[in-house]
Amino acid sequence: MLRKSVRLITTTLKPIALFPQCRSHAIHRESLEKHMQKNKQSFQIVTKKPKDSTVTLLLPFATNEKLREVYLNQQGGTRIGRLLEDLDSLAAEVAYKHSDGFNEARPINIVTVAVDRIVLKRNITPDCDLKLEGHVTYVGTTSIEVRVDVTTLVNNNWESVLEANYVMVARDKYENKGVPVHKIEPETEEDKKLFQHGEAKRKTRNHVIEQPNQEEAKHVHEIFLNLEKKRAATENAMHGTHIGEFRTIKSTTFTKPVIMHPQLSAIHNKIMAGYITRQAYELAWVTSFVYAKGRPQFVSLDDNTFIRSIDTGSVVKFTAQVVYTNADKCHVRVETEVMEPSIGRTDLTNVFNFEFKVATQETVVPETYEDAIKYLEGKRIHEKGQ
Fold first, then answer.
1. Which stretch of 106-115, 258-267, 355-364 has the lowest confidence by average pLDDT?
2. Which pLDDT band, with edges at 50, 70 and 90, does 217 fall under?
3. For all residues of the chain together, what is the average pLDDT?
4. pLDDT for 313-339, tens place per residue?
5. How many CB atoms lie within 10 A of CB 344?
6. Does the pTM exceed 0.90?
7. Has residue 29 got a pLDDT over 50?
8. 116 and 149 housed in the same domain
């Protein structure tokens, strides 16, 4: 049975627990084959409207002090990382609702595979109510694109403060393969616009690293030439942090290991994508804070790729670097890797691209080809978001 599509959160529950239906529901293994066969015979793919999947979450910060304290950061502002965790959970609930994932005749799991873009439009004040509203904008065969809009109540008017776009995939709960989802029929002009955007984005979505074009190769070559000139004239070069007015990408690196405890699991002992996003954001914030020597302001999260899921009990290493800077913007790349100490191996699971507004004018530059590729990717993402 579906839950109500509008809820008022009045407790201090952790964001990961706000959407319990995103967790798996056990079915006795001995009746699995019979259950699956019955489901395949009874479930039909239909066409739905975008409004059919709408889910709204109200966070009454203005009147609920205990809830507000959960979202306060060390500066007295709003914890963006915790809000990002909520956004992922709400997007998952929207996808479950669209695909009838709460129906026992539909044994599926919803997995976050990408975040196309999350952009902060204005500062979020912690003493004003927030409303999170999500709905499906586009569907493929097994994929579901979800738009989440965040508004805040100012002078009795709901004003937009943040937009987020997620790509979810429906997978069979037992066979772990993609399953078809309901189709969608746009109604309003805005629905049609978002549907067309999703269709265009799907055709251009490419997670393969592109080679530098001629102009980019020339740009990187000039950077390396300037570095060599500065290196010869700068006594700090031996420390590997500053070369003249430049700072190396390597010198901005911060890492932290995190144990994935069972309490963080979502489906089949997999860790919630929103929790990984929150951990990545907080490390990115610290990285930009140290780089800029002042508090950064979150601008956007772009082209976030979830390469593979993370099992409960894993030890995950988060690595953040400032890979590109332009005027008052710095681009922080965060990679997450599952560590296998017994065999000395790490497997890449996620790549995040955060952009912050900072006060410094210090320029970061690559020293190696690997860093040059990261630099160019950060540059492309920054220019695409302008």
1. 258-267
2. confident
3. 83
4. 899 999 999 999 988 999 999 999 999
5. 7
6. no
7. no
8. yes
Q: Which amino acid is at 127?
A: D
In-domain check, residue 209: no
**Do 175 and 231 sit in the same domain of this protein?**
no
pLDDT at residue 340 in the model: 85
pLDDT at 205 over 70: no
Can you tell me which residue has the tokens 């529950």? 13
* CATH code (residue 341): 3.10.129.10
Domain check: are 226 and 373 in the same one? yes
On whether both 265 and 285 belong to a single domain, the answer is yes
Q: What is the pLDDT of residues 35-80, one digit of tens each?
A: 555 555 567 889 999 999 999 999 999 999 999 999 998 888 899 9
How many structural domains is the chain composed of? Answer: 2
User: 166 and 44, same structural domain?
Assistant: yes
Same-domain pairing of 182 and 232: no
Residue 1 forms part of a structural domain: no
HEC letters along the chain: CCCCCEEECCCCCCHHHCCHHHCCCCCCHHHHHHHHHHHHHHCCCCEECHHHHCEEEEECCCCCHHHHHHCECCCCCECHHHHHHHHHHHHHHHHHHHCCCCCCCCCEEEEEEEEEEEEECCCCCCCCCEEEEEEEEEECCCEEEEEEEEEEEECCEEEEEEEEEEEEEEEECCCCCECCCCEECCCCHHHHHHHHHHHHHHHHCCCCCCCCCHHHHHHHHHHHHHHHHHHHHCHHHHHCCEECCEEECHHHCEEEEEECCHHHECCCCEECHHHHHHHHHHHHHHHHHHHHCCCCEEEEEEEEEECCCCECCCEEEEEEEEEEEECCEEEEEEEEEEEECCCCEEEEEEEEEEEEECCCCCEEECCCHHHHHHHHHHHHHHHHCC
- Domain range for 373 is 214-384
pLDDT for position 240: 52
